[in-house]
Specification:
Elements (H helix, E strand, L loop, with lengths): L1 H18 L11 H14 L4 H9 L2 H5 L16 H12 L3 H20 L3 H4 L2 H7 L8 H8 L4 H13 L10 H17 L1
Helix pairs in contact: 1-11, 2-3, 2-10, 3-6, 3-11, 5-6, 6-9, 6-10
Amino acid sequence: MTLHATAIVNHVFALYELHGDDDYIGEPVSQLEHMSQAAALAEAEGFEDEVILAAFFHDIGHLCAAGGETLSMDGFGNVDHEKIGADYLRKQGFSERVAALVESHVVAKRYLTYKFPQYYQQLSEASKATLQFQGGVMTAAEAAEFELNADAELIIKLRQWDDMAKETSIPVNNIDHIKQKAINHLTHIKRQ
């Protein structure tokens, strides 16, 4: 089981080796720096491995579709990258919770811009530009539905890490650690 999980993780992380140094859609960090920082923020707050993995993988959809086979958000990444990434993780055998958290980080941005209009001003220029491609500010009905999600607070937390994980000059030194968490996660799921 561990050997199979290791092969899957090596396959997934090959995307980071191939595209991780790419520009992170107009931000001052690379894709890999962004993902690494998001995972480190989740771990520093004491969250469990599924959440740490979701934080790391939240933008994997940009890497899955890096070949240009999906619609672009005017050069700011791929339309529906959250769904592309979540579906990719499901196919690789990651838990539904990891995939659902990955899929929800864009919804959280839409929710926060509805619930707290000043949040929009805190967004980076790239995040502001992509918001319209992602459905824009939520409606009141969409926000009420979002608030019923049992993981709503965690989804918002994931969005906060996404917003914060854009610092320059932070070394990427947790990749082997994240890989091991992913192997453990997949091994555990196979045993269930």
